[in-house]
UniProtKB/TrEMBL annotation:
Entry keyword Disulfide bond: no
Keywords (A to Z) from UniProt: Signal
Gene3D superfamilies per the UniProt record, alphabetical: Haemolymph juvenile hormone binding protein (3.15.10.30)
Organism: Dendrolimus punctatus (masson pine moth)
UniProt keyword Signal present: yes
SMART domains named in the record: JHBP
Protein name per Swiss-Prot or TrEMBL: Odorant Binding Protein 36
Position of the signal peptide: 1-22
Classification of source organism: Eukaryota, Metazoa, Ecdysozoa, Arthropoda, Hexapoda
Gene Ontology CC entries for this record: extracellular space
Amino acid sequence: MNKNYNMITFFKVCLFLHVVYAGDIAPFITKCKWDDSNCLKSSTQNAIAIFAKGIPELGVETLDPINVANLDASSKTLKLFLKNTTGTGLKDTIVKKVSRSISESKLLVTLQCTVDFKGQYEMNGRLIFVPIEGNGGARVILRKIIITVEVDLGEKIGDDGLKRWNINDWKHSYELKDKATIELENLFNGNKILGFAAHNLIASNSNEIVLEVGPPIVKAIVEKIVNNVKRFFEKVPAEDLELL
């Protein structure tokens, strides 16, 4: 058997493997028709834990834990800065609804999460109309937070000539379905009397506080997730994500 024949055979095998496995770039995705909401929901649910671990080769960083280095969550009456915040629990996210509209180029996703955040805080101002200050360790547990994300979904052609989805824009909303926990160390610089009163106030009004100062925090988390999905779409052709 001559060398030329062996070389040709080798290239044929390589081409065959490329054709067979090219469609397996994201084998954990079940391809669905655009109007099959049950399939979309199931496929998204199956992908959650894999996404949470991270898929570096597809542009997806680790999302559980999810890290936010610095965040300004200030309001008109309160200066609140968070740093080195880490959240765990996204791998256990429950997909409540997924729907897609071809005519409106929309993708709607509703998720239920319980996330445990830990980090450092610095705060000064008025919280629920009460003067408050402090800095130190912080822990916030958001239980059964329902997050709905509406995505404007576009399309573009990749360098390989294949169509890919693209997130043109997005917006979100959220609501709490269970009581949140907020624990802040070193309130009033360690003053035990003022700190005790503040702890009681926070414990009794935790959900109201999350609604007051939570929007920038939730937005930062959703934005990080959306950016990872966007990079995933850039890597994976649309034909590997949908049934035509």
